[in-house]
Design brief:
Shape: globular
Number of helices: 5
Number of strands: 4
CATH class: Alpha Beta
Order of helices and strands: EHEHEEHHH
Radius of gyration: 15 Å
Strand content: 15-25%
Number of domains: 1
Largest sheet: 4 strands, mixed
Distance between the termini: 24 Å
Oligomer: single chain
CATH topology: Collagenase (Catalytic Domain)
């Protein structure tokens, strides 16, 4: 599966995702684990204010969020635009006593999990989403350990 169908962009901020190849590999493995195929994923890293504006315009929500996922999936082909607020991941990392890298990776997985069909509307859904996020982060840790050997 070609890895050039996962793209990382920025809007209105200066940001560089560490280990793009490892993250791309991880996302491909997550998609494969759910018996889906990769279409095109665009991860767009931005500021709180940029994401707030998207939230207001597209979802009619007037609050900060860490991610907004636009789903373009068709059948088993996973495609979407995922906008992530780097500001929000920094704040959430502090609040949850995590590293920013860990929080950012959790949000990256969270958006993909939405595209894979997981939701967080009910309390039960939230519990399952958190479990799936933790499973995804453990998978990433295994990939990183193997990559460093």
């Amino acid at each position: 599966m070609p890895q050039d169908t996962i793209f990382f962009h920025t809007e209105d901020i200066s940001f560089k995702l560490d280990c793009e190849n490892i993250i791309s590999n991880w996302l491909l493995q997550l998609i494969d684990r759910h018996d889906k195929k990769l279409g095109e994923l665009n991860y767009i890293f931005c500021s709180d204010s940029y994401l707030l504006k998207l939230n207001q315009e597209h979802l009619k929500h007037d609050y900060f969020t860490d991610i907004i996922t636009f789903d373009y999936c068709e059948e088993d082909v996973i495609s979407g635009d995922l906008f992530i607020s780097v500001d929000r991941t920094k704040e959430n990392a502090k609040m949850f006593n995590k590293t920013q890298s860990n929080e950012l990776n959790r949000v990256i997985a969270h958006g993909l999990l939405h595209l894979l069909g997981f939701t967080d509307k009910s309390d039960e859904d939230v519990v399952e989403m958190r479990r799936m996020e933790e499973e995804a982060l453990m998978m990433l840790n295994r990939i990183q350990v193997n990559d460093n050997k």
